[in-house]
Amino acid sequence: MASGKDSDRTLGYMTRKDTEVKLPRPTRVKNKTPAPVQITAEQILREARERQEAEIRPPKQKITDSTELSDYRLRRRKEFEDQIRRARWNIQVWMKYAQWEESQKDYARARSVWERAIEGDYRNHTLWLKYAEFEMKNKFVNSARNVWDRAVTLLPRVDQLWYKYIHMEEILGNIAGARQIFERWMQWSPDQQGWLSFVKFELRYNEIERARSIYERFVLCHPKVSAFIRFAKFEMKGGEVARARHVYERATEKLAEDEEAETLFVAFAEFEERCKEPERARFIYKFALDHIPKGRAEDLYKKFVAFEKQYGDKEGIEDAIVGKRRFQYEDEVRKNPLNYDSWFDYVRLEETVGNKDRIREIYERAIANIPPAEEKRYWQRYIYLWINYALYEEIETEDVERTRDVYRECLKLIPHSKFSFAKIWLLAAQFEIRQLNLAGARQILGNAIGKAPKDKKYIEIELQLGNIDRCRKLYERYLEWSPENCYAWSKYAELERSLAETERARAIFELAISQPALDMPELLWKVLFLSNTLKESRNLRRLLNRLIIKLSIIAYIDFEIAEGELERTRALYERLLDRTKHYKVWVSFAKFEASAAEQEEDEEEEDQEETDAIERKKECIRLARAIFERANSYYKDSAPELKEERATLLEDWLNMETNFGNLGDVSVVQSKLPKKLKKRKPITREDGSTEYEEYIDYLYPEESQTTNLKILEAAYKWKKQKLATSEEEYD
């Protein structure tokens, strides 16, 4: 009895051990070195063939009388019948049986075998072919016709049966019978090759009209491009140009939208070329290019360009090249409709052609591709499609209403709650001004201020129109919306000054500099200063200094200087120094004091004595020098960390003293100039490594004296400590 672990109900009386597959034990190769004599695979095969025994063949039997022949036939028939009973479905057995009976000249028995085989599998066309060949080979013509007739009746979709049947009748010279068989076949609507065989059959016997009628039935049964092209070539071969053209025209009417229409139009155009009709061919090419989708017209474009190079003039060749480029642009915008640069190039191409309807169509297709996200960076290129569209309608087509509609639709499309484009508002307003519609322009600009109030062009337009009161109101609204905008304050004051309203301009400046938060006070004060938060970035300070110095052109101080109010200017500088101690302020103040003498000389009479002028100039130089002294004292005592700014200030002071000539005193500044020192400081990188960076440090005279005192004090302490140590050792 087997144990519980080895027993299993599914195994019956066997155990698991009995069912295990025992593999042969692998043989261990003890010696892996190559044998001294190597044997190739070719030698092994040759030896195997040499040792192979001869094939055993049955002995040949010679039949000497009719009895032996009958026995032989009976035995062979019995073998074939046995094989058929075992494998009735095997066609090769039936065929060998029938062929053996045929070899015995017993045609009735052979025919009987073929009939029995067909009765078992009449759908096998190979049986029918072999059966008919048996009848034809033995010249049983009527029996062969009977077999072919039965075959094509049962299997009408097998073209080979029809071809063989027709071929037999044609060999026998029965042309009418062959034609009748073709007609029977055509009723089943065979493929194109069957129809073409029928046409070739008629052409072999010079039946042109019959062939033409067959072609007519052929294109009705198979309305394809290839069928019509074959029909047209048939007519062209017969010299019937008008008939061939008519065939192409029928094909164009029916198959203009077909996928193979390109092939049809190319064939039609080449037909007209052969007929010496280049104008017809050109019209066909253009018609095809207008109706066939661009993605399927690549070969057509190549043919058209080659045609124009051969038959066309300069304009025709250019049109063909434009068509080819148009195809390229269509392919680009089809692949990526949001590539606005491709649309720009496409529109520019169409504008060179000058077809207004097509240009408008391209513009409409381009502006229909709205950016997917409501972010300004995605709209910046897209908005220029609208601008170019509007300018084209205004300048080229001179359609005012259409231009107005373009601007209106563009302004509706932009999401003004998230961002806006001042350029499109201004272009729309300027368009209305050119149309002498000032009310419409003001309405557009009013809407622009409500939706994009940062724009300043509205005021400039009103100023050009001469509406001063409206400009003042707009400036007031602008400053209510953005009181920290220095540019607006300075422009407003400049407007009042241009109108000779000095007191109003001064009041605007006073109101501006009293604002608590100005985004660029340097523009109003004619100086530049930076907040203490930028101290750690010297390069950034320099960059911003240069940038804002360029912007500081019109300011309060310039205004007072232009008005000749020197005392007011000094007071403004002092107020500015209360806000910021930037070195540019000090330098600007000192330069003002140095140039004040020249301004005073202009106001004096011409007969003023020269000595008084020199004294006044010395006084101005003294005032400028005093301002530099104040600045140097401030950096020395209150801001010693701003060494670079102090060095720049002293360089400007030195340059000014040099420019004073004989009245200047360069030695006053030279004693204060610092020494430039190259130093290195460690910098820790992101990966934890340390590297050293060189920088320029400044050592001022007062700092060098302090350093010397510290060295003397340290030497004195060292000497004192050394004396105390020697006394202890002596004790």
UniProtKB/TrEMBL annotation:
SUPFAM superfamilies membership: TPR-like (SSF48452)
Protein name: Suppressor of forked domain-containing protein
Family: Belongs to the crooked-neck family.
Chief place where the protein resides: nucleus
Basic and acidic residues bias (residue ranges): 1-23
Region (Disordered): 1-35
Keyword Amino-acid biosynthesis in record: no
Subcellular location: Nucleus
Any one of the GO BP annotations: mRNA splicing, via spliceosome
